[in-house]
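Hey L., structure's done. Input below.
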Amino acid sequence: MAAAARGCGGVWCRVWQRGAGGSAPRGQRVVAGSARGVAVPAGKSGLVPWVPVVGLEIHAQISSNSKLFSGSQVQFAAPPNSVVSFFDASLPGTLPVINRRCVEAAVMTGLALNCSINKRSLFDRKHYFYADLPAGYQITQQRVPIAVNGTLSYSLCTDHKMSQMVTKTVRIKQIQLEQDSGKSLHDDTRSQTLVDLNRAGVGLMEVVMEPDMCCGEEAAAAVRELQLILQTLGSSHAVMAEGQLRVDANVSVHHPGEPYGVRTEVKNINSVRFLAKAVDYEIQRQIEELENGGAILNETRAFDSRLGCTVPMRDKEGKQDYRFMPEPNLPPLILYDTKSLPANMNHQQVVNIDWIHERLPDLPSVKRAKLVEQYGILPEHSFTLLNEDGLTEFFEDVVKHTQMKPKKVLGWILNDMLSYLNQHSLTVKESPVSSSILADLLNLLEKKQISSSAAKQVMAIKAGNHKVLNKLIGLVQRKTQGRSNPVLVKQLLEKKLLG
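Output:
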């Protein structure tokens, strides 16, 4: 199947399949997307292109020791219902108390995303009924959220080698504070549902992105950049595997110049890779449905990662009435800047927007620019260094302790060490080859005391491949013209490399 250029162009058009296989099968065309073409049945509309539209709603769990409105501890994988306060369980007479840390985290995130921070924001009740929502409503910010009108710039590659990057921007509609619900555990064997309220009341930031994206690759790149920003700020750990970052994707397609099509919402995607697949699948599904004369339903769908497709959950044809109302137990949230802060105000009891802004760390885009300038590396390599947790620190530590040029050091890290880690599903922090070991090895290589082949073999041994030890023994034997004792050489190598 013919491959399209990576990176989304904004319009998906059906083109005939080309390449070694010749033309496309009769009655089929290829839909060109972010990474590859996908065959769909030919429709009646000829070669009219489709414009996909993708918007995201991202729920980020705030990095805080306690919940948004109670003093209950936030602890992942705690025993069921072990960190639940009376307020979390919605017992009568309990009242919410705002968590200052959560407010500061939301302000920090809003500033990092170029948002306007509302000095006066409001809390609302959003009513809906699930077993894991004991109050029957969620406290959120529907009318006046804490931050509005921001932007997020993200980059994605335009070819498979990442040698060309394009930067795009998505508008941030708003960031709102809200509490999480509990978790329902379905026991099909016993035909019952169990409820764990540990997560009930945990503080969330909902980041609402405008529909400015057009494919799964763009959506994934935007979420990955947001994830890096949140982790850099410390406002959220944003570990998707632990449910700390959950994504809802709104997807629709239309012809150029026509109004947006009916959208579907793909809920609770917990992986950047699955997000890209879910969005691209949903775009393909909608195009195929419309090309065959069908209609798109306004519905909520889920992504089945095992089957690689989206499946219906519930329809949204009848608009749900959440009966929003002002939260009567919480006054307006008032924030200050340096100019508006009263002289007699206790600084410990207010949130100062300017104070937070002054303490913002370097964001990922700034860090990447500094890496390129300081070490002379390619821009695309700076993305790899930041995308892998701990890899930038590893690289800089090796550079600090070796005489080898940074570009060559990076080549060893990316081509040898990182490929090994990916192959064995290890993180940088789990690497069997430490930065000091690699620095020592590269220093020997730079002084021409060992060959490049020997250095790679030493790395392999350090990584756990002890079979390579025999190759080093062979090198020693050749160097000494067979005069060395293989048993003694093996003992010495094991002492040096494995001791």
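Confidence is low (pLDDT under 50) at residues 1-6, 14-45. The longest strand covers residues 165-179.

-- N.
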